[in-house]
Design goal:
Distance between the termini of chain B: 48 Å
Strand content of chain B: 5-15%
Shape of chain B: elongated
CATH architecture of the largest domain in chain B: Up-down Bundle
CATH topology of the largest domain in chain B: Multidrug efflux transporter AcrB transmembrane fold
Distance between the termini of chain A: 22 Å
Number of helices of chain A: 15
Largest sheet of chain B: 4 strands, antiparallel
Shape of chain A: elongated
Largest interface: A-B, 104 and 92 residues
Oligomer: heterodimer
CATH superfamily of the largest domain in chain B: Multidrug efflux transporter AcrB transmembrane domain
Helix content of chain A: 40-55%
Structural class of chain A: alpha+beta
Number of domains of chain B: 3
Radius of gyration of chain A: 35 Å
CATH class of the largest domain in chain A: Mainly Alpha
CATH topology of the largest domain in chain A: Multidrug efflux transporter AcrB transmembrane fold
């Protein structure tokens, strides 16, 4: 036989052996029960001579169970938050330039910055000199107020950044969580897609990914006596010598707490207490906020739990805070759950955190300036804790959880908070716009049915080819089986996931692969009918049909590639499987069968049943 | 020369495909137009799955037999008037596919009712509702309001609220609120687990797609099919001859529409996988057509002087065996899926087989005879004035 034929034999053998070798991890993977697949048991079962144990066939979400989420980032809210921060910066800037103003705050739309001032001209000049690249004054200055609007391009940039940041944060959270093979992608319309294969608890996933985790540090305005006015509007809380007695009256009541002042001395500060958070929110809007100077002070809400399990009481209390956010969770470098053994009544789960170097500097200044004041830790609009600043804090801090529940629940909560703090905050709340959950029992059943379907399809095609084309049919059958192995081997190697539609795609590529052999055999028959020898017919048949086979594969590939761009999840799995199948089929139908057929017809007098 | 063959189709046939083209074209036109008309929402419409219509779909398996009518009734009582309950797979599996909220979570009437109720209680400055989102109402008020009271007002209008979100942070006196209505998934799940507790319902799969996402996917799916057709036509044009293009386009669109017909007439769910079938049919069925076209071209050079109708008939007859057998072999591989496939996968296999059959039919009776019609037209133009410009293309 000629040298090129020997070369092809070598190639076919190498591909065949490689395919089988590449499937070794997959074989061991699927032999194990689903629970053992991702642990040591599996790692140990793959023999040392096999390929990387990680390169096994992956089952898609629809086959192994898991959760797929698409989350829409509320970019409008992110933009408003950004505008509010810019307003703070503008205020700082004007202060530095010693320009008189009374208040800098976002206007009613939340998208523009309104500066209340008597020196409108100076404010406009100083602000635009510095922020001219972002802001412009649309000229709506009236009543001693200057309005600054953001340029469209800047707003667009804010939105883009928000989605980018959200994606990063979600990716961080999932990474810290240890889900195997998660898939996180940014999609159109401010959407982020998250796939967690094998993940069994959708509620937990949604809770952890959906938490905004905005951590803010604010200083309590304990010198301010503004809330004393509510004493005439609400009933006083029932109290005994030891403190409040329960139950509290519906509709809220007032009580006092002793606060130490930074200047020395102490005073009794009024706070409002309710049974339910909405009640307190109602009181804040109706009664407390009007007492405050807008933009300077504001009200925070804390959740307090007293007593143990059966007799425990949860109530909500107000805090009087300075509006300014002194420091945010952005400066947190690391966080973890631990137990504070110094707290009264034994160990209490807490979150301890480490600030980044920049954050540590800011924290040091903040704590030095506000020594002996209380600092509130506000997580997602809830005051978790408000301890006195006893000394300089810089790198390490601690959050005591305000909420009660039992030790186990508290520790889990501490863990959750630590995780989201470490992974960073979402720039804005997210809403779930798409959710697909597949339970764990459905997958194995589908795998079984899918495998059975594929085997039946394969069996019928093999039988048909052998019955109709005899020897050349058997040759095609060999190629077909090799094609199947090759597809699975390539999928294992590049880590594609096998989905339910992917199984259908696999079956279909078997059909399409045999298609090519039908074309070849029919052509060989035609050549034989035209009076050529078997050897000539085989040569001619392959040569003439070569481009037809390429064409049929290319058109199918075009459709598969378009589908790959369009589809997501299981349907994408179909497109990927189809694509790999078509490429493999090109090889097996043209190279593999030809090599065997040429061997069978190597003599001029050879016979062949076609 | 030694060989043995048996043929399913005898070779050397001389069927007159071209002669049947008028009947075939009329038949195909009727089928295609009926499918298109039937798929129009005004006439009947496709049964869009959650992928495209938005809403919630749940696959629920019960341990014991449950009457689907009872499920429908209990959901109806919960206010899900449009809920659909289908048996999924064999009856013995006691598995049902439940679909709720197919078009939008809140209709314009609900929005109007909520808006009136809120206006009656508070000084509303602006209200915004985006039907694309479907579950969110944005309010702006003249004066600060209490979230809990706002929620109560909305719920009094008969719409359950999942969340009232303040738009400018909790601590300021807020005047802008987003009211997000409750998801149906939680409600359905709760209803089933309480009402049918003794049958131990197990929610095996949940798919929730927001209406905006659904619309987006639908548009993208339609575009994907168009792109695929365009790319394939360009490829065939470059590889062979751009004179092939009209016939190829017609054949592809014909097959895509016939495949769509399966979903239109059976009322089976049209979803992402359906788009995948149509795309695959498009990529697959074009091959037969190209094989025959190529043979026509070959024969034209070989048998100069024979009439075009003859040449086309000859080309189809010469390739008859392989056109039939390739389609047959591919369809054969799908038999397993037809037997064991449930739901979407069964639909995939069935529609694919239909597309394969249609591809073979359209090659023989539509695409190939069309070349004659095109040649005749070209000849007429050549004879007429200004022919040079037309031919130059």
């Amino acid at each position: 036989m000629e040298r090129s034929w020997l070369g092809r034999v070598a190639l076919v053998l190498v591909v065949a052996i490689w395919s089988v070798w590449q499937l070794v991890p997959s074989y061991h993977y699927f032999k194990l029960s689903p629970d053992d697949r991702n642990g040591d048991v599996y790692d140990k079962s793959v023999p040392g001579w096999g390929p990387d144990a990680k390169k096994h066939l992956n089952l898609g979400l629809d086959l192994q169970g898991g959760i797929h989420l698409a989350m829409g980032v509320d970019v409008d809210r992110a933009v408003k938050a950004k505008v509010a921060r810019r307003a703070d910066e503008v205020a700082e800037h004007l202060k530095e330039k010693s320009i008189a103003f009374t208040l800098v705050a976002p206007d009613a739309s939340g998208l523009r910055i309104a500066v209340a001032t008597t020196a409108a001209g100076d404010v406009e000049k100083a602000t635009l000199d510095f922020y001219g690249s972002e802001l412009y004054a649309p000229g709506g200055s009236a009543d001693g107020q200057v309005l600054f609007a953001f340029k469209d391009q800047v707003l667009r940039e804010f939105k883009g950044k928000a989605v980018e940041q959200a994606e990063k944060t979600i990716r961080n959270r999932v990474d810290k969580w240890g889900v195997s093979e998660p898939d996180i992608k940014r999609k159109a319309n401010n959407q982020i897609q998250v796939q967690l294969p094998g993940f069994k608890d959708p509620a937990k996933a949604k809770d952890l990914l959906g938490r905004t985790a905005q951590l803010e540090f604010k200083i309590c305005d304990d010198e301010n006596a503004a809330f004393d006015a509510v004493r005439t509007q609400l009933p006083a809380c029932p109290s005994s010598r030891d403190g409040m007695t329960f139950p509290l009256p519906d509709g809220g009541c007032w009580t006092v707490e002793n606060v130490e002042l930074a200047s020395g001395g102490a005073r009794q500060s009024t706070m409002v207490v309710t049974n339910k958070r909405p009640e307190l929110e109602a009181i804040i809007t109706a009664r407390l906020t009007p007492l405050l100077e807008q933009g300077r002070t504001s009200v925070g809400i804390g959740e307090v739990v007293v007593g143990q399990d059966v007799v425990r009481q949860t109530y909500y209390r107000s805090y009087l805070l300075r509006s300014k956010t002194e420091l945010t969770g952005d400066y947190i470098a690391d966080a973890r759950a631990s137990v504070d053994n110094s707290s009264p009544g034994g160990g209490k789960p807490v979150v301890t955190f480490t600030m980044s170097p920049d954050g540590a500097r800011l924290m040091e200044k903040l704590t030095t300036d506000n020594l002996h004041r209380r600092m509130a830790t506000v997580l997602d609009d809830k005051v978790e804790t408000a301890p006195y600043i006893q000394g300089k804090i810089s790198t390490n801090g601690q959050i005591t959880l305000g909420s009660g529940r039992n030790y186990q629940e508290q520790f889990e909560e501490a863990n959750a908070i630590a995780l989201v703090l470490k992974a960073g905050a979402l720039p804005a709340p997210v809403t779930i716009s798409e959710e697909r959950t597949v339970g764990a029992t459905l997958g194995p059943e589908l795998v079984k049915k899918g495998t059975l379907s594929a085997l039946v399809g394969l069996g019928l095609v093999l039988l048909f080819m052998a019955a109709y084309y005899r020897v050349s049919g058997l040759v095609a059958d060999v190629a077909l089986v090799l094609n199947g192995l090759l597809v699975l081997a390539i999928m294992s190697m590049i880590g594609t996931t096998l989905t339910l539609p992917g199984i259908a795609g696999f079956v279909l590529t078997l059909g399409m692969a045999v298609d090519a052999n039908v074309l070849i055999n029919e052509r060989i028959r035609e050549e034989m009918r035209a009076g050529r020898t078997v050897k000539q017919s085989v040569q001619q048949g392959y040569d003439r049909v070569f481009w037809t086979i390429v064409d049929s594969h290319v058109t199918a590939l075009v459709a598969a590639v378009v589908l790959m761009q369009y589809g997501s999840g299981p349907v994408r799995g179909f497109a990927v499987t189809l694509t790999i199948g078509l490429v493999a089929s090109l090889f097996t139908s043209i190279v593999v069968t030809r090599t065997i057929m040429e061997y069978l017809t190597r003599h001029d007098t050879a016979r062949l049943s076609v | 020369m030694q060989f043995k063959t048996f043929d399913i189709l005898p070779h050397g046939t001389t069927f007159d495909f071209v002669g049947k083209r008028r009947i075939a074209v009329v038949l195909s036109l009727i089928i295609n137009l009926t499918v298109i008309a039937w798929s129009l929402p005004a006439v009947h419409g496709l049964n869009f799955g959650v992928d495209f219509a938005g809403g919630t779909e749940m696959e629920v398996k019960f341990a014991t037999a449950v009457d689907p009518g009872a499920i429908r009734k209990s959901l109806d009582e919960q206010g899900f008037k449009d809920a659909s309950v289908q048996t999924y797979g064999p009856d013995a599996e006691n598995t049902f596919l439940i679909r709720v909220g197919r078009i939008a979570l809140m209709g314009t009437e609900d929005v109007k009712r909520v808006e009136d109720a809120v206006r009656a209680k508070f000084a509303v400055k602006t209200v915004a509702f985006n039907p694309e989102i479907g579950d969110k109402l944005d309010f702006q008020f003249e004066k600060p309001v209490v979230p809990a009271e706002l929620q109560a007002a909305v719920e009094a209008a008969g719409v359950k609220v999942r969340e009232v979100r303040e738009e400018a942070g909790l601590t300021a006196g807020t005047r802008s609120f987003a009211v997000i209505t409750q998801g149906i998934r939680e409600k359905v799940e709760h209803e089933l687990t309480t009402r049918f507790a003794e049958s131990k319902p197990e929610v095996r799969r949940v798919e929730y797609v927001g209406p905006a996402v659904g619309r987006e996917l639908r548009n993208q799916g339609f575009k994907a099919v168009l792109y695929a057709i365009a790319l394939i036509v360009v490829y065939v044009g470059l590889r062979f001859d751009f004179r092939f293009s009209p016939g190829v386009i017609i054949a592809i669109i014909h097959d895509a529409i016939v495949t769509l017909g399966y979903f239109a007439f059976s009322g089976r769910e049209f979803n992402l996988t359906s788009i995948a079938v149509i795309l695959t049919v498009v990529g697959y069925s074009v091959n037969d057509t190209v094989v025959v076209y190529d043979r026509i071209r070959e024969n034209k050079a070989k048998y100069q002087g024979r009439g075009l109708a003859d040449l086309v008939n000859l080309a189809i007859n010469e390739t008859l065996g392989r056109t039939f057998l390739t389609s047959f072999a591919t369809a054969l591989s799908l038999v397993g899926l037809l037997i064991f496939g449930v739901g979407t996968i069964f639909d995939f296999a069935f529609a694919m087989v239909l597309g394969i059959v249609s591809g073979t039919y359209s090659t023989w009776f539509i695409a190939a005879p069309m070349t004659i019609w095109l040649e005749e037209r070209a000849a007429k133009r050549k004879a007429g004035p200004g022919a040079a410009a037309a031919v130059a293309r």
